[in-house]
Amino acid sequence: MKQKIVGSLAALDLALVVATFASSRLLAAEADGGALELRQIIPLAAVEGRIDHLDLDAPGERLFVCGLGNNSVEVLDLRKGERIHSIRGLGAPQGVAYLGELSRLLIANDKGGLCQIYDAKSWQLLSTVNFEDDADNVRYDPVTKQIYVGFGDGGIGVIRASDGKRVGSIKLAAHPEAFLLEKQGQRIFVNVPNAGQVSVIDREKGEVTGAWKLDGASANFPMAIDEASHRLFVGCRNPARLVVLNTDSGTSVASLDISADADEVFYDAKRHRLYAICGEGYIDVIEQTDADHYKRTVKIPTATGARTGFFDSERDNLFVAVPHRGGQGAEIRRYHLEKAGSR
Fold it and tell me: Fewer CB within 10 Å, N or C, the chain?
C-alpha cells in the first residue's frame, strides 16, 4: 500500500512539474513576443531527425508535417491536440500539399524523387510520379488545377491534379528550393541557391524569363510575397539577411539582418509584418513601414533546429516545427497572433 501511495505522489509531482513547465513556456512566449502568444504544444513522440515543410487542412483542422529524418508524414488533429495518423516508409519527405477540393495529399520525397498522391481520408496511395531525384517543395494552382514540384538538379515538374499524371517540366539552372505562384499574374518565383539567383518563370510559356541577383547575399532558401506592394522577400543564410526585391524590376530595394539558418518566411498582409523562422532558435518579427522600409522588432526564442512552419493567415496562427534534440522532444508549437491594429 505504501509503495502505491509513493508511486501516486511521484506521478502527481511529475504532472505538476510538466504543467508548471508548460505554463512557464506560454508566459515566456507571450512576454518575449507580445505579438505572438504560444497557445498549443503537440508532442511528436518517436519522431526523430529533421522536420521539413508543413501544410494545413483548415476546415478539417488537420496539420500535415514532413518528418524528413523519420521517413514519415505526421497527421495532427488540432482540435484534439494530438497525432491521429502517420504515413510511414517514405523516402525523406520534404514537401507536402493538401488539395481540399480533391481530398488529396501530395508528398514529395528526396530519396528516389517520388511524388506520392494519397487519399486524404483513407490514406490509400493512389498514384506516384517519379522525378528520379530530390523531389522537394510542392505548390498547387487551384485555377488551372495543376501541381508544381521542384526536383533534381534543376527542374519544376507539372502534374495534372485530376488524374495525377505528369504533363510537363520547366528547366532551371540548379536545384530549386522555395518557390511561389503569383496569384495576380502568371509568374513563378523560384529560389535557386546553387545558381545564386531567383529565377522567374512564365507559367503560360513554361520557361524561365528572368534571373534576379540578391545584393551580395547567397544561400537563398525561403521566400514570401506581398503582391499588393510588388515585393518579394527572400531569406538568405550567407550572410543571414532578408532581401526585398521589386517584382516589377527584380532590383533590390531593402536588405536587413535576420537570425541564422532561416528556412521559412511568411508575409502577414493584415499586419504588414513578416515572420522568419530560423534554425538558430528564433522567430524574427519584421515590421513593414512601407514597401521599401523594414525593421526587425523582436526575436522570439524557440529551439535550435526549429526552422520550418506554416502560417494560417485566416485564423491568425503560426505553426513552428521543433525537432528532437537532446532533452527537447519533437513537437509542433502553435502561436496565435493578436488582432490586426491592436498594438
Answer: N
